[in-house]
Amino acid sequence: MIVEVTSGVLATLNEEARKAAAEECCGLLLGRGARIEQAVPAANVAADRTVHFEIDPRSLLSAFKAARAGGPEVIGYYHSHPTGICVPSKTDKDHSTGDSRIWAIISESEVAFWRDNANGFVAQPFRVVG
């Protein structure tokens, strides 16, 4: 399945990664089906934000409650690798849940999308829409 992502979401992902600079940014990907229509920044509450990310649990709860009430679905999550490439790191793999959600990983020069499957992360082709 090809992930659809709006140009506005890509711009937000790149801007959030740029603003976080030496630290990892993180947040939620919202939309419907396979279409990502919003990137919602969240606080990174990890102890060492230069090499890890942990999405603020309040942001997660709020997004899932809103989805249950008819709001956009939580399609996945995003974070940056400020000094690395946009492939899942060992830490990312260790925190994989196999929930089939999409992870966007942002590096200095690109964004890649991955599906968190039971067998690990699988690269997801994407196309820019809107």
From TrEMBL:
Q: Which UniProt keywords apply?
A: Hydrolase, Metal-binding, Metalloprotease, Protease, Zinc
- Kindly give the Pfam families that the UniProt entry links to this protein: Prok-JAB
CDD domains per UniProt: MPN_like (cd08070)
In its UniProt record, a GO molecular function of this protein is: zinc ion binding
- Gene Ontology terms: biological process: proteolysis
Give the domain of life: Bacteria
Q: Which PROSITE patterns match?
A: MPN (PS50249)
Residue ranges of the MPN domain? Answer: 3-130
PANTHER family per the UniProt record, alphabetical:
CYSO-CYSTEINE PEPTIDASE
- Protein known as: Peptidase
